[in-house]
Amino acid sequence: MKSGGPWFKEIANIGRQRTLRGALLTVLVTGVFCAPLITFCPVLVRDVHHSDALHFGQAIAAFGIGGMLGATGILALEGRIDRSKLSSGFAIAYGILIWGLR
Fold first, then answer.
1. 17 in a domain, yes or no?
2. Whether this model's pTM surpasses 0.85
3. Domain that residue 81 falls in
């Protein structure tokens, strides 16, 4: 991108690339719908589950472990299924599920 050039044209160029557009939309959807769960996790643990910092740590660890298991599961498919579509579908479904539980 040229210095001082119109940045929105560059954004439009990125949007026209199918693989980048799909990846960015997946991150956008999961970020918008799932970020509140992580943000309010301390409040949920304290006020809803009447628990302490130990259980908060366990809840956050569960998110990390779930992410690692999901990534490992996707890698184990060995090209039988399009991984990007599968992971995008699960990420979007997860975001919608979390949003629906609010």
1. no
2. no
3. 36-102
Q: Give domain status of residue 26, yes or no.
A: no
Q: Residue 68 burial (CB < 10 Å; 0-12/13-18/19+)?
A: exposed
- Identify whether 23 is part of a domain: no
How many structural domains are present in the chain?
A: 1
Q: For 9, what's the count of Cα atoms within 13 Å in the CB-facing half-sphere? A: 5
Query: How confident is the model over 1-60, as pLDDT tens digits?
Result: 455 568 888 888 888 888 888 888 878 877 887 777 788 889 988 998 899 999 999 988
